[in-house]
Amino acid sequence: MNIFRLAGDMTHLFSVLVLLLKIHTIKSCAGISLKTQELYALVFATRYLDIFTDYISLYNTCMKLIFLGSSFSIVWYIRRHKIVRRSYDKEQDTFRHHFLILPCIILALLINEKFTVKEVMWTFSLYLEAVAILPQLVLLQRTRNIDNLTGQYIFLLGAYRSLYILNWIYRYFTEQHYVHWITWISGLVQTLLYADFFYYYFHSWKNNEKLQLPA
Amino acid sequence: TDSNDLKDEL
């Protein structure tokens, strides 16, 4: 494992911890999109099917369990927790996330490396992860006033994606040169979705202002 | 094993 991959995994882990910290200690999910969180839970559930069939490493198994457990517990908190659910802004979080799922299923059935259940599910999870942040970004645009933890959560997610691209570049040059178009392109699309957010995040950080997105 | 199989990623 190279340094970019490890740093990517750690920023991903921190992003989840920041979100859980916000929900668990402040008992608030204000500014957090349930739609995006549900999509992430689906992404992990379809991608980590190999957890019982293929053993890669203890690290790999533990991280998969953490991401599965955290994503489902975040969804549980927002939907069921008697205090947290009150802070959920249902009227603002209106992105029709179900309409993202069907195109991803069709795309995964058409464009995949192997036409097997596990492989199609894995490919579906890559396509879905690429667009899963969209409901969250739309919600941010609407709420405008973004609290620090929510801003950090999205920043860390974007950092994780950027580091994964550096990891693929590194792997391409240090390992056998295989081409992974599906992973690379969906990963690149996903990272580009953060470009706008990054711009305003760094802008507010540089000027020491509160993060605000333009209407 | 395929050393460059990205299935070892998360």
Automatic annotation (TrEMBL), chain A:
Spans through the membrane: 55-78, 99-115, 121-140, 152-170, 182-202
Biological processes per GO annotation: protein retention in ER lumen; protein transport; vesicle-mediated transport
InterPro entries noted in UniProt: ER_ret_rcpt
Major localisation: endoplasmic reticulum
GO MF: ER retention sequence binding
Record localization: Endoplasmic reticulum membrane
Keyword annotations of the record: Endoplasmic reticulum, ER-Golgi transport, Membrane, Protein transport, Receptor, Signal, Transmembrane, Transmembrane helix, Transport
Family membership: Belongs to the ERD2 family.
Identification of the protein by name: ER lumen protein-retaining receptor
Species classification: Eukaryota, Viridiplantae, Streptophyta, Embryophyta, Tracheophyta
